[in-house]
Predict the 3D structure of the following.
Amino acid sequence: MNLKSSDRNLEHCIFCGEKGPLTGEHVFSDWIGGICGAPNLTWTDLTLTYNGETRHTAINEPHEDAKLDVLCYDCNSIWGSKKQSTAKRHLAPLMLGEWPRINEDAKKIVAWWATSFAMVREFTHPETVITPQLAREQFRATSMPPPGWRIWMRPYEGYRHLESRHHIFPSIYGAAVPNVFIQLFVSGKIAFFVFGPSDPWLSNYHSTASYCVSNALIHHRFVEIWPTHKFFLKEAPTPIEDAEYSNIIDIMREAVHSPMDWMRRIPPPAK
């Protein structure tokens, strides 16, 4: 993996762009242990896949000690801390296996949290970062995911408690360098799926890639939380279990890389 980009300068805050000093941002928020029960966090790791190569990084230290020096004090301890406190109210029930009512305000803060996680998580391997600095700074200014990002979630039941799978690849449009990432991550009893393109047109609702990813996730009973939750289910879909969870990244990669082949083979969405 030998990717280069002029805007991946770790001397600057990834959200506001200001030059350091930088503070440690948790890969998994430290409050999650209090929600899920820290002694029960039996699986904590990170996986990166790019160009056929997979890197697996187990977090052997307490999850609250796993940090990345990527944020300035204001973005971490003031703006980020305040947003985390608000998000916690909506995320705690999900992490405990409940399915609370999601209104517009809850949708926005849950989407903010998933986006913040995805953007920070990218810097576990900074040489593979796809999200442009401008998109991160706009996220800081608006507290909304960048245009073109899509976020889904589904209840989870299994032995993983804090885990993230990150896959980067060129889009189906033939770009020579990676310009799309997908992340699947678990926090307690909820799994999130984030589709993050470097440019909004890559996941335009009318694009083949967006159509295939959407239908693949519907088939696997994920519920979209961003940019719309118009069809958000009042009752929770069945939880995704480990066998199905383990195959989701490969299924999504196929849906994006070979959309026509995928559409011919996929059965109708599960009801």
Remarks:
- The chain has one domain: 23-265.
- The helical segments are 32-36, 73-95, 104-122, 133-142, 208-219, 242-257, 259-265.
